[in-house]
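#data-curation
PF: Archiving a pair of folding outputs for the training set. Convention for this channel: one message per protein, sequence first, structure tokens after, nothing in between. First:
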Amino acid sequence: MAIITLTTDLGDKDIYQAALKGSILKLLPSVNIVDITNSVAAYNIQQAAFILKNSFYYFPDATVHLIGIDTVFNTETRYLGVKYKNHYFVGADNGIFSLMFDSDPDEIFEINIMQDLKFLHFPLADIFVKAACHLAQGGTLAEIGLPVSDIEKKMNLQPVIEKNLIKGVVIYIDSFQNVITNITKEFFNTVQQGRRFMLSFKRNETINHLSWHYNEVPEGEKLCLFGISDHLEIAINKGNASGLLGLGLGDSVIIDFLE
């Protein structure tokens, strides 16, 4: 069965999500629609990129991922269909693809499906849906677009190395209020080289041990680990790390490696 996933900032209080799903089912009644999330903060492509980057590869090859972030009509923004690691992505060329992919896409096409003026203010339910359904039925990108060689570039915040320090920042806070940083496991291991460390952040809080799982410490105690995204997380077992530790998006964390 064909699969179309949705990653949007449409929420669940208004008509927009229902209009999007209804438009898909009108064109392709048998498709399996999977919500990755419809709760991305409005226009927040960084948040959407993090979520989709860390979830799309759990789906079967040829899954079509429809991205509904900052998709309102704009004469200066292209709509793209992209193939990457045997998955298809349909979205606005607003920088999200560069934030999401670790390497160049296999194919990039600017979608040239004619805009229905009835949906001029909501191309997500028109052009994007038509492109996604076409791909979900086995169609090619070349049949609905023109090849292009580049995408809009935006940069994720990268951790910084200074002598025996890594300086990182908080890039995401999940539903459990776990605090996720921009320090990946690969980056950490490369710099650590087996040394002991001290992780420090707001309120003079410190952690000097990597946990394997959240229940490794007593309930209410803080910990750090590399979670499902392979990014360093600061958490509290059965607790609210973001609120209790005062950590928010953009806050700094420092890892000091001890000789």
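PF: Second:
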Amino acid sequence: MAAQRDVLHTAVAVVAGATTIAFRVPNGRAEQIEALIRDLVLGNHPAARK
């Protein structure tokens, strides 16, 4: 994951294999969203558990 910040938003890019998905989120929420995505990928989030 990578993040790039501007005045109002942070561009968060998720890289998986040869695919990159980029989206913009409010600056105050970027760290929370990065942590959520990381937890989902690693299986640490309740939604990722079976």
